[in-house]
Write a structure and sequence with these properties.
Layout lengths: L2 H30 L1 H23 L5 H22 L14 H21 L8 H25 L1
Length: 152
């Protein structure tokens, strides 16, 4: 796999990870504080739609930008809630956790790839679309399952 293929595959795969984990954790957060839980649902939906748009229209820049903004917001949100208390989200600083650190690391790498792709002119061969779609579906399913198992 060459560098361009890695970028074109890696950037969209950060979306299903974000979607799956946030969808898996949404029920727990909805019980804790409904607005926070709703933000997890919105993050999962936006990530899913952006990735679907990237897979279906690989050359489109809008879904790439939406994914980039979402990944930046998710990374910033996780890090800020671990470094300081942010009422009304939580009156105390949240501890770092392995699932959150792993997910945020993947989101940060995806963000870097998205930023790099956004500055380049690129063309995706149509033959890679089916492979990327299958990979995205598998990653989303595994991420959601992991998120549900760890939140139970």
């Amino acid at each position: 796999m060459n560098r361009r293929s890695l970028e074109l595959t890696g950037a969209p795969l950060a979306g299903p990870v974000a979607a799956g984990v946030h969808a898996g954790l949404a029920p727990e957060h909805l019980r804790e504080w409904p607005p926070l839980g709703a933000s997890f649902v919105v993050a999962a939906v936006v990530a899913s739609v952006a990735v679907a748009a990237l897979v279906l229209r690989p050359g489109a820049t809008l879904p790439l930008r939406v994914l980039g903004v979402l990944l930046a917001a998710l990374v910033a949100g996780y890090v800020s809630t671990r470094l300081a208390a942010l009422p009304p989200l939580d009156p105390e600083r949240e501890p770092f956790d392995s699932l959150g650190v792993a997910t945020t690391s993947i989101e940060a790498i995806g963000l870097l790839l998205v930023l790099h792709l956004a500055t380049q002119r690129w063309q995706v061969p149509e033959s890679t679309t089916a492979v990327r779609l299958a990979l995205a579906a598998v990653v989303a399913g595994l991420s959601a399952t992991l998120g549900l198992l760890l939140s139970a």
